[in-house]
Amino acid sequence: MSANNKRTILIGVAGGSSSGKTSVCERIMQQLSGPGQLSSRVDMLSMSSFYRRLTDEERKAAQAGLFNFDHPDAFDFDLMVSTLQDARMGKPVRVAEYDPSLSLAAAQQRHRELALVDVLLVKGILLFYQPRLRDLFDVKLFVDCDSDTRLARRVRTDLARGRSLVSTLNYHTEFVKPAFEGFCLPTKKYADLVLPRGPENLVAVELMVPRIRDFVAEATQASPSKVARRDRSNGKTARHLSESAAAQPQVSRPH
Ligand SMILES: Nc1ncnc2c1ncn2[C@@H]1O[C@H](COP(=O)(O)OP(=O)(O)O)[C@@H](O)[C@H]1O
Ligand SMILES: Nc1ccn([C@@H]2O[C@H](COP(=O)(O)O)[C@@H](O)[C@H]2O)c(=O)n1
C-alpha cells in the first residue's frame, strides 16, 4: 500500500486483436480526466509489454512470421501478475515499452516507469485467461467485434508496420484466428461487461465512468483491512460491484 493508503483501480480491457481495446481505453481516459471532470490520474498499459524474452531460435522464427505471439506461452504471466499486484498497491513499477514499430527484442530494451495513478487501464488479448491475473481487476471489460472487422483493421495496421498483405493474412490464418477462438473468446464469460461497437459505444462508456469514479473514491478511503477484505473477495468482482452499487444506489453522472 502506498504511503497515502491509496490503492490503484485496475480496469482490464480484453478482446481480440484490433477489436478496439486501445480505443476504448482512450475513451475512458478522456472521460475520466477530460475538462469539467473530477480529475483522476489515469494511465494505460498493454499486455504486449509482457511478452517473454525469446530464445535465439524463437527470434529467428518471429522474424520469419512463424512465432505465435497470440498463444499464452508467448507471455510472461508471472511478471505481469507481480507487476499488477505492485501497481494496484500504489507501488512504483517499471515496464517494458512495447513499440510495434520495433522488433520485440529492441522494444524490450526500453522501459518506462508507470506513473502513480488512481486508475490503470490494462488492455490485452489474454488478460482473463489465467485466474490469478483476471482476479486482479476491479472491472473486467470485453470488447466484442466481429472477425471480419478485426481482420480488416489488422490488415491496415500490419501494412502500416511494413508487413506484406500475404504474410499478414497467413499469420492471421495460422496464429491469430485459432488463438482468438481457443484462448481469447472463451474468456468473454469472465467479463463484467461485454462492449459491442468498441469506442463508438459511448452509452456504455458513459455508464461505466461514474462507477469507476466510485471505485476511486472507495479506494482513497479504504483502510488496509478493507482492502484485504476486497482482495479476498476478488474473483467475485461482479458480486462485489453489485454489492457496492446496492450500498450506493444513487450514482450521479458527472456534469
Ligand atoms: N469503432 C471503430 N471504428 C473505426 N475504427 C476503429 C474503431 N475501433 C478501433 N478502430 C481502429 O482500428 C484499429 C485497431 O483498434 P485498436 O483500438 O488499436 O484495437 P486493439 O487495441 O484491440 O488492437 C485502430 O486503427 C483504430 O483506430
Ligand atoms: N511482435 C509482435 C507481437 C505481437 N503482435 C500481435 O499483437 C497482437 C496483440 O496486440 P493487440 O494490441 O492487437 O491486442 C497479437 O495478435 C499479436 O499477433 C505482433 O503483431 N507482433
TrEMBL record:
UniProt key word Protein biosynthesis: no
EC number(s) from the headed UniProt entry: 2.7.1.48
Molecular function terms, GO-annotated: ATP binding; uridine kinase activity
GO biological process: CTP salvage; UMP salvage
Composition skew (Polar residues), residue ranges: 245-255
Recorded catalytic activity of this chain's protein: cytidine + ATP = CMP + ADP + H(+); uridine + ATP = UMP + ADP + H(+)
Pfam family, one: PRK
Phosphoribulokinase/uridine kinase domain span: 10-204
Top-level class of the enzyme under EC nomenclature: transferase
Keyword annotations: Kinase, Nucleotide-binding, Transferase
Family, per entry: Belongs to the uridine kinase family.
Protein name: uridine/cytidine kinase
Source species: Macrostomum lignano
Upper classification of the organism: Eukaryota, Metazoa, Spiralia, Lophotrochozoa, Platyhelminthes
